[in-house]
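Input sequence (118 aa), recorded before submission:
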Amino acid sequence: VQLQASGGGLVQAGGSLRLSCVASGSTSRVDKMAWFRQASGKVREFIAHIYWRGGGTDYRNSVKGRFTISKDNAKNTVYLQMDSLKPDDTAIYYCAARMLNGGNYDYWGQGTLVTVSS
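Predicted structure, token format:
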């Protein structure tokens, strides 16, 4: 599976961005898709995931109520709508895929930079 993330950019605090992640290849074996982020000098952290078939979601506490993960199976695309952005949300955002019978996220996109100015 190949993942291509896009949609990052520079936004002022309180603004919004929508990230997209297009999957290609063996997408029929995808179990769930997720977004992670890594700020400069910090460890990578989980943001949200969505199950590819059922659509169940989960979020990091700090983004609940502000971020929404969704998917369009017909387009093999997962989205992350980010509202009420804060400077602390500044990071490189990565999408990832976990496969059926997989234990971890086996496939990663290249990352897209989100910068939130105060």
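Checked by second reader. The CA atoms of residues 11 and 116 lie 5 Å apart.
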